[in-house]
Design goal:
- The structure is a homodimer.
- In chain A, about 70% of the residues lie in helices and about 0% in strands.
- Chain A is an all-alpha fold.
- In chain A, helix 1 packs across helix 2.
- The interface between A and B is large, with 70 and 69 residues.
- Chain A binds a DNA duplex (18 and 18 nucleotides) through helix 1 and helix 3.
Amino acid sequence: MTSIRQRNQRLILAAASEEFAAKGFDATQTLDIALRAGLAKANLYYYYQSKENLYAKVLLEFVEPLLEASAVLRESDDPVAGLQAYIAARIRIAREHPHIAKVFSSELLLGGRQLPEECRDLLYAEAQRNVECLRSWIDRGLLAPVDPEHLMLFIWSATRTYTNLGWQMAHITGRQVPDDGDFSQAAATITRLVLGGVVPERVGAIGGLLFAT
Amino acid sequence: MTSIRQRNQRLILAAASEEFAAKGFDATQTLDIALRAGLAKANLYYYYQSKENLYAKVLLEFVEPLLEASAVLRESDDPVAGLQAYIAARIRIAREHPHIAKVFSSELLLGGRQLPEECRDLLYAEAQRNVECLRSWIDRGLLAPVDPEHLMLFIWSATRTYTNLGWQMAHITGRQVPDDGDFSQAAATITRLVLGGVVPERVGAIGGLLFAT
DNA sequence: GTCTATAAGCCGATAGAC
DNA sequence: GTCTATCGGCTTATAGAC
């Protein structure tokens, strides 16, 4: 039994995600969110008090999936399985929440000042656990000696891009919106590059010149 | 002999880049740009007519460097040298124009509606040339059969991230702003992953499982 | 809980003197 | 070319009837 309250809050959150994703925080108008949700603008303030608070609630929706996807890296003690599952999990959540993922990216790009500090700390601690995991794999020779922090940044940027760059994707692939094939190609390409570059038995002799840039 | 006109236009462009980068188009106020440039707000309108026009001029500053960096991929017919130089060039321009690079990223994220159509076409054509170059390398067996469009997207996202995500970098590395070491580590890591994943003699047996995600 | 009408203030843009 | 003063419109947020 979903109350009127729950239903409306969901409608507003969904509408807000889409508007914020399309135009960014500052350019979206609360009126447009209300129209998209099919409610009067005053209702939006009745449920969420302010535009900024609504925005924070949208961001919050993405934190839990993000933390869960991140923990996947350390589920087994096998770098190949871990990295592969981690990349797949990140692509999956970006795909399941395309609008919020974009809002989140935009927020990070502007410095993350509207992301509640508590969230930042949770995400940071989670990232540190993954860095430690990578470092331990490297120490035990299970992973090539790549910089673990940069490897993480790299995976983040790659998995984020596919949902974010609407028109770049469209221009390049000739389609309007990333489809099933794009996502599996993305996962395949990223996985291949990451594993090809960091798993010892897959790494050939990496000459010193590669690090001379 | 730099005229007053030239000097002021430069001051305004620089100030605008920083403000737009820090807050995004919609959240930056023309008054703040003027204050940062050390001029009266009216002068800004005298030189650039409107906020949107000023923004477009900021974006324009990045197109030429971007096109030049892109062409580097095809300078020789060697995938290793080409990819390595291309990654280095993209990191270099993002580093030389950190603010504009960020403005550009933000604009792309929001759909690129304010990027003049002429620019879009130039960038698209340039990207297509690179895709064709990669495809020819693949056809001749110089490069592993990775999807060339996804490889491009991948390099774009990776090279962009290091300058954009100020606080993500800061949180992870403990520094406020990416420094020399970060940039060379970035170049090294990206180059290593890309070359390790796509240059045939560096690629081990890539099992089918890698593509099953 | 819902909705209309309106307050309050901010910000892009300009007029017009110097 | 420069600068002050100000307009005019737009947008968040709320008051208050239903």
